Amino acid sequence: MKTAIIIFPGSNCDQETEKFLYECTGVRPMMVWHKEAVLPDADLYVLPGGFSYGDNLRAGAISAHSPILKAIKRAADEGRQILGICNGFQILCEAGLLPGTLLPNKSQNFICKPVKIESQGGHNYTIPIAHKEGNYYSPSIVNVAFTYTEDINGSMGNIAGVYNNQLNVLGMMPHPERAFESFHCSQDGITIFKTLFNLHK
């Protein structure tokens, strides 16, 4: 499986995500700067977590207008798989590739800790979160991918991740790339990734 990581100014999870994807797929991800206009050929494009430039305006609002997002939108229209993690989720919502928006946490505080999430298949995982704007809201019905097992940040329905209508674009606030090493809180990130993308060693 070929993957590519989109890097924005301020991305701080790109190297963790690179190592994570290599562990999951056995293939080194391609790294793509946000000002590029053309995407390399890949099976999956990942927008990693971090604090991209312009987040002081609104999380992901400026990054959503980076040149590479036009190519990401074309890839999504073609049915390519897109994954946005944390700030990447915020960018996908701001770009209109996913419904809804990410609001400030109900506590108004940055939250960084392992949490329990449940997939729509009924599987439970322990995955870290690290965000201040992770309170998901959408006025319309959405395709839920993951929910928190308790109210973490005020998200409607405890939503932790959603799909687009075509089910090829996924955004999630928890960080699977922070749950695969032996010293992490769990190795559930690998299980989640391989289940989502039907990969098996």
How does this model look, in words?
- This protein has helices spanning 14-25, 68-77, 87-94, 188-196, and strands spanning 3-7, 30-33, 44-47, 81-85, 101-103, 111-119, 124-131, 135-137, 143-148, 159-163, 169-172.
- It has 201 residues and is α/β, with parallel strands linked by helices.
- It has a single domain, classed as Class I glutamine amidotransferase (GATase) domain (Rossmann fold), CATH 3.40.50.
- A 9-stranded mixed β-sheet has the order 2-1-3-4-11-10-9-6-7, sandwiched between helices.
- The longest helix is centred in the first third of the chain and has 12 residues, at 14-25.
- The radius of gyration is 15 Å and the shape is globular.
Structural class: alpha/beta
The oligomeric status of these chains comes to single chain
Number of domains: 1
Output the CATH topology: Rossmann fold
Q: What is the distance, rounded to the nearest whole angstrom, between the alpha carbons of the first and last residues? A: 12 Å
What is the CA-atom radius of gyration, in angstroms?
A: 15 Å
- N-to-C order of helices and strands: EHEEHEHEEEEEEEH
Main β-sheet, in a few words? 9 strands, mixed
Residue stretches low in confidence (pLDDT < 50, at least 5 long) are none
Helix segment count? 4
Overall helicity: 10-25%
